[in-house]
Amino acid sequence: MTNIFNKSDFFNKVYSIVSKIPYGRVTTYGAIANYLGSKKSARVVGWAMNASHITEGVPAHRVVNRIGLLTGKKHFFGINLMKQLLESEGVKVENDQVVNFKNIFWDPSLELQ
DNA sequence: TATGTGACATCAA
DNA sequence: CTTGATGCCACAT
User: Fold this and answer.
1) Which bases of chain C come closer than 7 Å to a protein CB?
2) In Å, what is the CA distance from A8 to each residue of A14, A17, A81?
């Protein structure tokens, strides 16, 4: 695979990982940050998502916080968009929280290999 | 250069 | 259970 990260690694790494999230699965900011080596850098992952609206191939709706809460939904076009996208993939969302989150959680450090 | 903010996570009280 | 504080890194002003 071609490495697009030369200097600003974090952002591009985040994009790379997020774009690899399988259909119908979700992951967390912390999991990504942890995979990148800094477990406490989850905020930067969030920042990357914030800038991802200009980056294609980044399904930011598949990234939620550690409890499966759609904290970033308000940053989408509409409030319902994030939920709609997830539900259209088979991910059930109730009260802005992913149902069976544990079940569909996708951990890059475990499954990306 | 310094300060503040943020789609988070974790711990202490 | 809730609230507050701290760490982390990039970006905006």
Assistant:
1) 7-11
2) 11, 15, 30
Distance from chain centroid for Cα A7 = 22
Nucleotide C7: closest residue by CA–C1': A40
Report angle CA A54, A39, A110 to the nearest 5 degrees: 85
Nearest nucleotide by C1' position to the A46 CA atom: B7
Domains by residue range for chain A, with CATH: 7-101 (1.10.10.10)
Angle at A48 between CA A103 and CA A5, to 5 degrees: 105
Say how far A47 CA is from B4 C1', in Å: 15
Alpha-carbon distance A101 to A103, whole Å? 5
pLDDT digits (tens, 9 = 90+) for A32-85: 999 987 778 899 999 999 888 878 889 999 999 999 999 999 888 888 999 999
